[in-house]
Amino acid sequence: MTQLTRKSLIFVAALTLAVIFLLSASQARRVCATCGSTIHTVNSEHTDRQVSDTKDGVTTNTEETSTHTVIIGDLGDVFTEDSTYNKNADGSSESHEHMHNEDPNGCYDDDGEAWKGDVSIDITTDAKGNRKQHTEEIIEKNGKCMKHVHDMEWDSKGTKIKDKEYDVEVPCTAYNLEYTFEGSLDNSQGTTMQFGPDTAVIPLALNNGVYEGFYKGDFHAAYSGKCSGSHIYPTQIDVKAKEDDFGDLEVTMTETRSDTGAIVCPEGQAPISGEPTSNSWTFTIKAEDGATYAESAAGFKFTYKLTKTR
Predict the structure, then answer these.
(1) Does 98 share its domain with 243?
(2) CATH code, domain with 274
(3) Are 63 and 143 found together in one domain?
(4) 163 plus 179 within the same structural domain
(5) Of all residues in the chain, what percent carry a pLDDT higher than 70?
(6) Boundary of a domain, candidates 150, 170, 190
(7) Do 153 and 268 belong together in one domain?
(8) Are residues 193 and 208 both part of a single domain?
(9) Residues 150 and 237 in one domain
(10) Using an 8 Å Cβ cutoff, are 119 and 135 in contact?
(11) pTM summary value
Protein backbone atom coordinates (compact mmCIF):
# COMPACT_ATOMS: atom_id res chain seq x y z
CA MET A 1 0.00 0.00 0.00
CA THR A 2 2.80 2.44 0.86
CA GLN A 3 4.37 2.11 -2.57
CA LEU A 4 1.05 2.75 -4.29
CA THR A 5 0.45 5.84 -2.18
CA ARG A 6 3.94 7.13 -2.88
CA LYS A 7 3.22 6.95 -6.60
CA SER A 8 -0.09 8.75 -6.06
CA LEU A 9 1.58 11.63 -4.27
CA ILE A 10 4.14 11.99 -7.02
CA PHE A 11 1.34 12.05 -9.59
CA VAL A 12 -0.53 14.80 -7.76
CA ALA A 13 2.70 16.77 -7.37
CA ALA A 14 3.13 16.63 -11.14
CA LEU A 15 -0.41 17.95 -11.56
CA THR A 16 0.39 20.80 -9.18
CA LEU A 17 3.51 21.79 -11.09
CA ALA A 18 1.44 22.07 -14.22
CA VAL A 19 -1.09 24.22 -12.40
CA ILE A 20 1.60 26.62 -11.12
CA PHE A 21 2.55 27.59 -14.65
CA LEU A 22 -1.08 28.21 -15.54
CA LEU A 23 -2.08 30.38 -12.59
CA SER A 24 -1.03 33.84 -11.51
CA ALA A 25 -0.57 34.68 -7.83
CA SER A 26 -3.65 34.19 -5.66
CA GLN A 27 -5.81 33.29 -8.70
CA ALA A 28 -8.37 30.48 -8.37
CA ARG A 29 -9.83 28.37 -11.14
CA ARG A 30 -11.51 25.01 -11.67
CA VAL A 31 -9.64 22.31 -13.53
CA CYS A 32 -10.22 18.76 -14.69
CA ALA A 33 -10.27 16.36 -11.75
CA THR A 34 -8.95 12.96 -10.75
CA CYS A 35 -9.76 10.60 -7.87
CA GLY A 36 -13.50 10.50 -8.52
CA SER A 37 -14.08 14.23 -8.17
CA THR A 38 -15.60 16.01 -11.15
CA ILE A 39 -14.28 19.43 -10.10
CA HIS A 40 -11.12 20.63 -8.36
CA THR A 41 -10.69 24.18 -7.11
CA VAL A 42 -7.07 25.32 -7.28
CA ASN A 43 -5.40 28.21 -5.48
CA SER A 44 -1.73 28.86 -6.16
CA GLU A 45 0.74 31.53 -5.10
CA HIS A 46 4.28 31.84 -6.42
CA THR A 47 6.99 34.38 -5.57
CA ASP A 48 10.44 34.70 -7.11
CA ARG A 49 13.18 37.17 -6.25
CA GLN A 50 16.50 37.21 -8.11
CA VAL A 51 19.35 39.56 -7.26
CA SER A 52 22.59 40.12 -9.20
CA ASP A 53 25.43 41.98 -7.50
CA THR A 54 28.83 42.99 -8.90
CA LYS A 55 31.67 43.86 -6.53
CA ASP A 56 35.36 44.23 -7.41
CA GLY A 57 34.60 42.89 -10.87
CA VAL A 58 32.96 39.73 -9.53
CA THR A 59 29.25 39.13 -10.18
CA THR A 60 27.20 36.96 -7.84
CA ASN A 61 23.60 35.86 -8.22
CA THR A 62 21.13 34.96 -5.49
CA GLU A 63 17.58 33.71 -5.77
CA GLU A 64 14.65 33.09 -3.43
CA THR A 65 11.44 31.38 -4.51
CA SER A 66 8.38 30.10 -2.67
CA THR A 67 5.23 28.31 -3.77
CA HIS A 68 1.95 27.62 -1.99
CA THR A 69 -0.72 25.51 -3.70
CA VAL A 70 -4.04 24.08 -2.54
CA ILE A 71 -6.23 21.74 -4.61
CA ILE A 72 -9.64 20.75 -3.21
CA GLY A 73 -11.92 18.25 -4.91
CA ASP A 74 -15.69 18.17 -4.65
CA LEU A 75 -15.52 14.69 -3.08
CA GLY A 76 -13.28 15.82 -0.23
CA ASP A 77 -9.87 14.97 -1.67
CA VAL A 78 -7.27 17.61 -0.80
CA PHE A 79 -3.72 18.28 -1.92
CA THR A 80 -1.46 21.05 -0.59
CA GLU A 81 2.12 21.94 -1.41
CA ASP A 82 4.51 24.45 0.16
CA SER A 83 8.02 24.84 -1.18
CA THR A 84 10.97 27.19 -0.81
CA TYR A 85 14.27 27.47 -2.66
CA ASN A 86 17.29 29.63 -1.82
CA LYS A 87 20.39 30.01 -3.97
CA ASN A 88 23.28 31.74 -2.20
CA ALA A 89 26.02 33.95 -3.60
CA ASP A 90 28.65 31.19 -3.32
CA GLY A 91 26.54 28.82 -5.44
CA SER A 92 25.23 26.75 -2.54
CA SER A 93 21.48 26.22 -2.22
CA GLU A 94 18.75 24.87 0.05
CA SER A 95 15.25 23.76 -0.82
CA HIS A 96 12.32 22.45 1.20
CA GLU A 97 9.08 20.98 -0.07
CA HIS A 98 6.12 19.68 1.90
CA MET A 99 3.11 17.98 0.30
CA HIS A 100 -0.08 16.83 2.01
CA ASN A 101 -2.77 14.54 0.58
CA GLU A 102 -6.20 13.63 1.96
CA ASP A 103 -8.14 10.87 0.21
CA PRO A 104 -11.39 10.20 2.14
CA ASN A 105 -12.69 7.74 -0.46
CA GLY A 106 -9.58 5.64 -1.04
CA CYS A 107 -9.76 6.10 -4.79
CA TYR A 108 -6.04 6.70 -5.41
CA ASP A 109 -5.39 3.13 -4.21
CA ASP A 110 -8.75 2.01 -5.59
CA ASP A 111 -9.50 0.16 -2.35
CA GLY A 112 -12.14 2.50 -0.86
CA GLU A 113 -10.17 3.03 2.37
CA ALA A 114 -9.53 6.60 3.51
CA TRP A 115 -5.94 7.72 4.08
CA LYS A 116 -3.80 10.81 4.61
CA GLY A 117 -0.22 11.34 3.51
CA ASP A 118 2.59 13.84 4.07
CA VAL A 119 5.89 14.08 2.21
CA SER A 120 8.78 16.41 3.13
CA ILE A 121 11.84 16.75 0.90
CA ASP A 122 14.94 18.73 1.92
CA ILE A 123 17.83 19.20 -0.52
CA THR A 124 21.09 21.01 0.25
CA THR A 125 23.95 21.67 -2.16
CA ASP A 126 27.25 23.14 -1.00
CA ALA A 127 29.45 25.55 -2.93
CA LYS A 128 31.47 22.65 -4.39
CA GLY A 129 28.38 20.93 -5.77
CA ASN A 130 28.04 18.15 -3.21
CA ARG A 131 24.34 17.42 -2.71
CA LYS A 132 22.23 15.79 0.03
CA GLN A 133 18.54 14.86 -0.08
CA HIS A 134 16.41 13.84 2.90
CA THR A 135 12.87 12.60 2.29
CA GLU A 136 10.25 11.65 4.90
CA GLU A 137 6.82 10.28 4.04
CA ILE A 138 4.12 9.46 6.59
CA ILE A 139 0.99 7.58 5.53
CA GLU A 140 -1.99 7.34 7.91
CA LYS A 141 -4.44 4.54 7.18
CA ASN A 142 -6.71 2.37 9.32
CA GLY A 143 -5.59 4.22 12.48
CA LYS A 144 -1.88 3.46 11.92
CA CYS A 145 0.92 5.66 10.62
CA MET A 146 3.90 4.34 8.65
CA LYS A 147 6.96 6.51 8.12
CA HIS A 148 9.32 6.03 5.18
CA VAL A 149 12.74 7.74 5.34
CA HIS A 150 15.12 8.00 2.37
CA ASP A 151 18.57 9.64 2.52
CA MET A 152 20.77 10.13 -0.54
CA GLU A 153 24.03 11.95 -1.23
CA TRP A 154 25.97 12.81 -4.40
CA ASP A 155 29.51 14.16 -4.76
CA SER A 156 30.40 17.19 -6.86
CA LYS A 157 30.72 15.01 -9.96
CA GLY A 158 27.17 13.70 -9.60
CA THR A 159 28.17 10.25 -8.38
CA LYS A 160 25.77 8.83 -5.79
CA ILE A 161 27.70 8.01 -2.61
CA LYS A 162 24.81 7.25 -0.23
CA ASP A 163 21.40 5.66 -0.63
CA LYS A 164 19.65 4.43 2.53
CA GLU A 165 15.96 4.03 3.34
CA TYR A 166 13.77 2.38 5.94
CA ASP A 167 10.16 2.10 7.15
CA VAL A 168 8.92 2.35 10.74
CA GLU A 169 5.53 2.67 12.43
CA VAL A 170 5.11 5.98 14.29
CA PRO A 171 2.35 7.62 16.39
CA CYS A 172 -0.27 9.40 14.31
CA THR A 173 0.31 12.99 15.42
CA ALA A 174 -2.72 15.17 14.75
CA TYR A 175 -1.72 18.51 16.33
CA ASN A 176 1.19 20.34 17.87
CA LEU A 177 0.31 22.26 21.03
CA GLU A 178 2.65 25.22 21.57
CA TYR A 179 2.66 26.23 25.24
CA THR A 180 4.42 29.49 26.16
CA PHE A 181 5.04 30.55 29.77
CA GLU A 182 6.36 33.98 30.87
CA GLY A 183 6.07 36.42 33.73
CA SER A 184 7.91 38.31 36.46
CA LEU A 185 7.98 38.76 40.21
CA ASP A 186 9.25 41.82 42.12
CA ASN A 187 10.16 41.88 45.79
CA SER A 188 10.36 44.81 48.17
CA GLN A 189 14.18 44.69 48.24
CA GLY A 190 14.53 45.78 44.58
CA THR A 191 15.00 42.41 42.85
CA THR A 192 13.03 41.20 39.84
CA MET A 193 12.74 37.59 38.79
CA GLN A 194 11.94 37.17 35.09
CA PHE A 195 10.51 33.84 33.94
CA GLY A 196 10.96 32.87 30.29
CA PRO A 197 9.46 33.36 27.85
CA ASP A 198 9.84 29.62 27.26
CA THR A 199 7.89 27.58 24.71
CA ALA A 200 7.22 23.86 24.76
CA VAL A 201 6.06 22.24 21.50
CA ILE A 202 4.01 19.15 22.39
CA PRO A 203 2.95 16.72 19.61
CA LEU A 204 -0.55 15.32 20.23
CA ALA A 205 -1.33 11.83 18.92
CA LEU A 206 -4.79 10.25 18.95
CA ASN A 207 -5.03 7.12 21.10
CA ASN A 208 -8.43 5.46 21.67
CA GLY A 209 -10.29 8.72 21.21
CA VAL A 210 -7.96 10.79 23.43
CA TYR A 211 -5.16 13.07 22.21
CA GLU A 212 -2.01 12.46 24.25
CA GLY A 213 1.29 14.31 24.33
CA PHE A 214 4.51 14.58 26.33
CA TYR A 215 7.27 17.17 26.65
CA LYS A 216 10.59 17.12 28.48
CA GLY A 217 12.94 20.11 28.54
CA ASP A 218 14.21 23.09 30.54
CA PHE A 219 12.43 26.32 31.45
CA HIS A 220 14.40 29.34 32.68
CA ALA A 221 14.33 32.33 35.01
CA ALA A 222 16.79 35.11 35.84
CA TYR A 223 17.26 37.69 38.63
CA SER A 224 17.97 41.37 37.97
CA GLY A 225 18.24 44.49 40.11
CA LYS A 226 19.75 44.22 43.57
CA CYS A 227 20.46 40.50 43.15
CA SER A 228 21.54 38.51 40.11
CA GLY A 229 21.52 34.87 39.17
CA SER A 230 19.56 32.34 37.18
CA HIS A 231 17.34 29.29 37.50
CA ILE A 232 16.87 26.24 35.33
CA TYR A 233 13.63 24.31 35.74
CA PRO A 234 13.83 20.77 34.32
CA THR A 235 10.23 20.32 33.20
CA GLN A 236 7.99 17.46 32.14
CA ILE A 237 4.52 18.08 30.73
CA ASP A 238 1.81 15.48 30.14
CA VAL A 239 -1.19 16.43 28.01
CA LYS A 240 -4.51 14.70 27.55
CA ALA A 241 -7.25 16.22 25.41
CA LYS A 242 -10.61 15.10 24.10
CA GLU A 243 -12.77 16.72 21.43
CA ASP A 244 -16.33 17.51 22.49
CA ASP A 245 -19.51 17.77 20.44
CA PHE A 246 -18.93 21.48 19.80
CA GLY A 247 -15.53 21.10 18.09
CA ASP A 248 -13.51 22.12 21.16
CA LEU A 249 -10.59 20.33 22.77
CA GLU A 250 -10.89 19.90 26.54
CA VAL A 251 -7.21 19.92 27.53
CA THR A 252 -5.70 18.74 30.81
CA MET A 253 -2.03 19.53 31.40
CA THR A 254 0.12 18.14 34.20
CA GLU A 255 3.46 19.87 34.69
CA THR A 256 6.25 18.54 36.91
CA ARG A 257 9.19 20.86 37.66
CA SER A 258 12.36 20.71 39.69
CA ASP A 259 14.59 23.70 40.41
CA THR A 260 18.30 24.38 40.24
CA GLY A 261 20.24 27.64 40.17
CA ALA A 262 22.09 30.28 42.19
CA ILE A 263 21.45 33.79 43.47
CA VAL A 264 24.05 36.48 44.23
CA CYS A 265 23.17 39.44 46.48
CA PRO A 266 25.27 42.10 48.24
CA GLU A 267 24.79 40.13 51.44
CA GLY A 268 26.19 36.95 49.88
CA GLN A 269 25.37 34.16 47.50
CA ALA A 270 23.67 30.79 47.73
CA PRO A 271 22.78 27.83 45.53
CA ILE A 272 19.11 27.02 45.00
CA SER A 273 17.55 23.61 44.52
CA GLY A 274 14.10 22.20 44.96
CA GLU A 275 12.32 18.88 44.90
CA PRO A 276 10.04 18.18 41.92
CA THR A 277 6.52 19.57 42.27
CA SER A 278 3.47 18.87 40.10
CA ASN A 279 0.58 21.05 39.06
CA SER A 280 -2.45 20.26 36.88
CA TRP A 281 -4.93 22.55 35.13
CA THR A 282 -7.51 22.44 32.35
CA PHE A 283 -8.59 24.76 29.54
CA THR A 284 -10.62 24.65 26.33
CA ILE A 285 -9.35 25.51 22.85
CA LYS A 286 -10.95 25.24 19.42
CA ALA A 287 -9.95 22.01 17.62
CA GLU A 288 -8.76 23.80 14.50
CA ASP A 289 -5.50 24.87 12.91
CA GLY A 290 -4.12 28.12 14.34
CA ALA A 291 -6.49 28.26 17.32
CA THR A 292 -5.07 30.19 20.29
CA TYR A 293 -5.96 30.62 23.93
CA ALA A 294 -4.29 32.81 26.56
CA GLU A 295 -4.78 33.53 30.24
CA SER A 296 -2.99 35.71 32.79
CA ALA A 297 -2.67 35.53 36.56
CA ALA A 298 -0.50 37.27 39.16
CA GLY A 299 1.95 38.69 36.62
CA PHE A 300 2.21 35.50 34.57
CA LYS A 301 0.93 34.80 31.07
CA PHE A 302 0.10 31.38 29.65
CA THR A 303 -0.40 31.10 25.88
CA TYR A 304 -1.49 28.06 23.88
CA LYS A 305 -1.51 27.63 20.11
CA LEU A 306 -2.81 24.60 18.23
CA THR A 307 -1.21 23.71 14.89
CA LYS A 308 -2.67 20.96 12.74
CA THR A 309 -0.01 18.59 11.42
CA ARG A 310 -2.09 16.22 9.29
Answers:
(1) no
(2) 2.40.160
(3) yes
(4) no
(5) 87
(6) 170
(7) no
(8) yes
(9) no
(10) yes
(11) 0.55
Q: Last residue of a domain, which of 117, 140, 170?
A: 170
In the predicted structure, residue 151 carries a pLDDT above the cut 90: yes
Residues 140 and 202 in one domain: no
Q: Using one digit for the tens of pLDDT, what is the confidence trace for 179-236?
A: 999 999 888 778 898 998 999 989 898 777 788 999 988 899 898 888 888 888 889 9
- Range ranked top by mean pLDDT from 85-89, 151-155, 169-173, 275-279: 151-155
| Cβ atoms of 229 and 261 closer than 8 Å | yes
Task: List the domain range (segments joined by +) for residue 250.
Answer: 174-308
Rg (the chain; Cα; Å) = 25
For residue range 48-105, what is the model confidence (pLDDT) as tens digits? 888 888 878 888 888 888 888 888 888 778 888 888 898 988 889 999 898 888 888 7
5-11 long-range CB contacts below 8 Å, 24 or more apart? Answer: 5/101, 5/108, 5/109, 5/115, 5/117, 5/139, 6/137, 6/148, 8/101, 8/103, 8/108, 8/109, 8/117, 9/99, 9/101, 9/117, 9/119, 9/137
Q: Is 99 left (phi over 0), alpha (psi -120 to 50) or beta?
A: beta
The predicted pLDDT at position 35 comes to 61
